[in-house]
Every structure is written in structure tokens, then in C-alpha cells.
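Continuing the batch. This is chain 6 of the set; chains 1 through 5 are on the previous pages. Same settings as before, nothing changed between runs. Recording input and output for traceability.
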Amino acid sequence: MKGRAWGSIAAALVACCVCSCAPRPAARVPLPILPILPPVQEAVVPTASDWPRSAVLDLALEAYHCGSTLGYIERPLLTVIDFSLPSSQRRLWVIDVATHRVLFHELVAHGQNSGDTLATAFSNRNGSLQSSLGLFRTDDTYVGSQGLSLRLTGLEPGVNDLARERHIVMHGADYVSDATVAAYGRIGRSWGCPALPPEVNASVIDSIRGGSAVFAYYPDDEWLQSSRFLHCDTQLAQAP
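Output for chain 6:
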């Protein structure tokens, strides 16, 4: 097929040359002017580093699907926060589950009393200034002292279900930046909120608000063994 195609092109070129050498025709028909099209952009395929580690992603998807099955999650978007990584690394991902695409991969802060560069302590207690683990649902937004903010509802009793009472929200913060990492080796810390870089805060919040899932991970054995969203078959079997 390729040989015939090249043969056709060669024949056309020969015909063109023959015509150019022939006597001038009585009337010349102008050739149409074709538009100059932009080059075709190749699709950008995320590399392995653009995704959460497979073990963390598997748990996040398990929790997401369980939350969706039980009616808590309404939108096919999953935000994964891997608190086992240092705050100097981009450890928040927003994933479109339906299309299997990473929409955002950003820095995110942990609570002041959760740790320094690494978060190692987590709490559901008022005044702890610590981050919480587990599955959350995104709700409505408001504009407060930190600008545009997104309310989060904790779905795991005893683990994160006081998030609304504790005012745990997603918001932007100047101390979450590459410049802060360059200066101090880590980003700043919040009072327990998953704070984002200011330049992406609005875009992330607009994308995930209104019923999507947020999964905050750390290898805490007690939580991993007891989370209802990580043992969904048992919970469904016990449901009335």
C-alpha cells in the first residue's frame, strides 16, 4: 500500500513537470489557497511520578468506590493526599476517575502539630492543630480570611468526622510554595487544613467541590484495619 501511495505521488509530480513544460493554456485557473494548520499536538501521557504510589492509589480507589456505593460520593473525582511523603514533595493529586487522568499534582500542607517536614501524628480532636486521615466529601465553598475555601465533611467516625466542627477546609496559603521549600526545606504548616499553593487554589477547589472524594493517607495500622471504607464488603454485608 505504501509503495503504491509513493508511486501515485511520483506520478503526480511527473505529470506536474510535464504540464509545466507544455504550451501555455488559454486560461489559467488559480489554485485554491489552503489554510496553514497548526502542528498536531501529541497527547501528554502522565509518567509514573505524576501518579500516587500504586499501593496508596489502590487504597484510595477502594475507599472512593465504597463511598460511591454507599451514596456518600456523587462526583467521579478523587483527591489523594499521601501524608507519608515529606511536605517538600508534591503529594496531592486530583484524579478524574472516569477518564483515568491526573488533573492536578500539587504541594499540600499538614497541620502544625502533625510534624515538621514529615507528618507523623493525626487527630480528630478540636484544638489539636493536626491533620486527619481517611475519606472526606467535598461540600460548598465560601470566601473567608484565607480567601476561597472549600468545606470538607469527614466520613469516618472517630477519625475525621469532626472536620466541619474543627473548620478543616481546603484553602490557599502563601507558605505553600516552591520558594518556601527552597528556603526552608519544607513548606509551612496549617492548623490542620490541607492548604494549597495560592496560584492553583481556586482551580482545584472549582474542580472538586460539590460531592467528590478526598482521601488522606498515612500508614496508620489502626485506621487501615478499622476504616469502613477500606473494608466495604463487610460493611455492605452488615447493612440492613
